[in-house]
Every structure is written in structure tokens, then in C-alpha cells.
């Protein structure tokens, strides 16, 4: 698509797209000899990500850092963005109710306490915002790499064996309900294993990781080596575990 077509599709200016290109946030797939900027489907998908993050209050500098991270995953980003937008919607709904009450109060129809005047006005961070900032920061990958580099060959072998052991154990439990006690205890082992050896996963991030097991065919293929349908089974069990932690 040409730059004007993209601008019209999204509802932003051509100047904005020029700016995104200039700062290295969204370079077009190709610039023709005549100087036309051509945008691919991948460019369009990345633009969607940029605008979602922008709506959620991230600066262009922060967005560039996030989407340039080697650990960035579009599907995982969408899951977290949805949570952030739902949280934002809840706050806005509360503020609208407070405004309606305030209008009635100004007409003398009702009385409001000082506490009621500020319901929904919350300047605390969206609980998922810091998670998004940390999830795709350099520290996520660096921490895991440093841990692996510090391990001896024997330690790396032990880690691999532990990995296989838990997945094989879960594969043997596939016929049980994912909410069963034994399955949940084993999923807890997986949660603690990942947190101890690779990075720090909150329950919500663990939930999102489980979704990736079925959304990303690379995850699915690797996990299903231990048993057909294991990725889908683990995904459901991980979601149940994450919800139960709240």
C-alpha cells in the first residue's frame, strides 16, 4: 500500500507516517526509485501495535524500544493490551457515573459526599502497564542469557532433563481434567521452574504464555513432541492456575 492509502485506512496523517519512518519506528517495506513509500502487511500489523500502545499512554520512544526487543511477540502484546484497555474502560465508566452524579448534584437533585466526588478518578498506574514495560525490556532477555551463561555444562544438562521431566509428567496427565489437583500441582512445578531458571513471570504473564503455546505454532510443535495435544492441555491448565492465584 502507498503511504496515502495507509493514512486513509488508519485515519492518521501522511506527516505522522513520515515521522514514524524518520525516527525508525515504522520504516516502509520499500521506497521506490520514484520516492514512493510502500507498506507491507507486516508494516500494517506493526502500525496497529504502535497505535494500541500509543492509546495506552506509551511514548513513541518507549514503543520503539518495546517492538524492537528480541523478546517481543505480537500475540502476547495483544493479550496484554486487551487487559490494559479493559482496565482503562472500567476507570472511564466509573468517571462517567461520577460526572452524571455531579451534574445532578449541581442541579440540587442529589447530595454527594467528598468521597463520591472522586470515584473513578485514580491516578495510580494501570496494573498491567508496568508489566508491559518490563516484559519487552532488554532486561528480560539479558537475565535469562546471563543465567544460562553462568551454568556449567552439567548444570545445563540438568536443566534440560528437568524441563523434559515436567513436560513428560504433564503429558501423562493429559486424560485428567486440567483443573484437577494433580495437574495443577504439576503446572505449579512448571511455573516455579520457569521463574527460577529463566525470568520472573507474574500469574498474568504465565496466563499469556499459555495462550502462546497454542497461538504460536513453534511453541505448539516443540511442546507436542512430548505428547500430541500437550500444548493445548498445558495452555488450559496454565490459565486455571493463573486465575486461581488472584
Automatic annotation (TrEMBL):
Residues 1-69 form the HTH merR-type domain. PROSITE patterns: HTH_MERR_2. It comes from the Bacteria. Keywords: Activator, DNA-binding, Transcription, Transcription regulation. GO terms for molecular function: DNA binding; DNA-binding transcription factor activity. The lineage of its organism: Bacteria, Bacillati, Bacillota, Bacilli, Bacillales. It comes from Alkalicoccus halolimnae. This is MerR family transcriptional regulator. InterPro entries: DNA-bd_dom_put_sf (IPR009061), MerR-type_HTH_dom (IPR000551), MerR_fam (IPR047057), TipA-like_antibiotic-bd (IPR036244), TipAS_dom (IPR012925). SMART domains: HTH_MERR. It holds the Pfam family TipAS.
Amino acid at each position: 500500500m502507498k503511504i496515502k492509502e495507509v493514512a486513509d485506512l488508519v485515519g492518521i496523517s501522511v506527516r505522522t507516517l513520515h515521522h514514524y519512518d524518520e525516527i525508525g519506528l515504522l520504516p516502509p517495506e520499500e521506497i521506490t526509485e520514484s520516492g514512493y513509500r510502500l507498506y507491507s502487511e507486516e508494516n500494517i500489523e506493526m502500525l496497529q501495535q504502535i497505535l494500541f500502545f500509543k492509546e495506552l499512554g506509551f511514548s513513541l520512544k518507549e514503543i520503539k524500544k518495546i517492538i524492537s526487543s528480541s523478546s517481543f511477540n505480537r500475540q502476547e502484546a495483544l493479550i496484554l493490551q486487551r487487559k490494559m484497555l479493559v482496565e482503562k474502560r472500567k476507570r472511564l465508566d466509573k468517571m462517567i457515573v461520577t460526572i452524571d452524579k455531579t451534574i445532578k448534584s449541581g442541579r440540587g437533585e442529589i447530595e454527594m459526599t467528598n468521597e463520591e466526588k472522586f470515584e473513578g478518578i485514580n491516578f495510580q498506574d494501570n496494573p498491567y502497564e508496568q508489566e508491559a514495560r518490563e516484559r519487552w525490556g532488554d532486561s528480560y532477555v539479558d537475565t535469562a542469557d546471563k543465567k544460562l551463561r553462568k551454568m556449567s555444562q552439567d548444570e545445563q544438562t540438568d536443566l534440560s532433563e528437568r524441563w523434559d521431566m515436567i513436560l513428560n509428567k504433564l503429558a501423562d496427565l493429559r486424560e485428567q481434567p486440567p483443573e484437577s489437583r494433580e495437574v495443577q500441582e504439576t503446572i505449579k512445578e512448571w511455573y516455579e521452574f520457569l521463574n527460577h531458571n529463566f525470568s520472573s513471570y507474574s500469574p498474568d504473564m504465565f496466563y499469556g504464555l499459555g495462550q502462546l503455546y497454542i497461538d504460536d505454532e513453534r511453541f505448539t510443535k516443540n511442546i507436542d513432541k512430548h505428547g500430541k495435544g500437550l500444548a493445548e492441555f498445558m495452555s488450559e491448565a496454565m490459565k486455571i492456575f493463573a486465575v486461581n492465584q488472584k
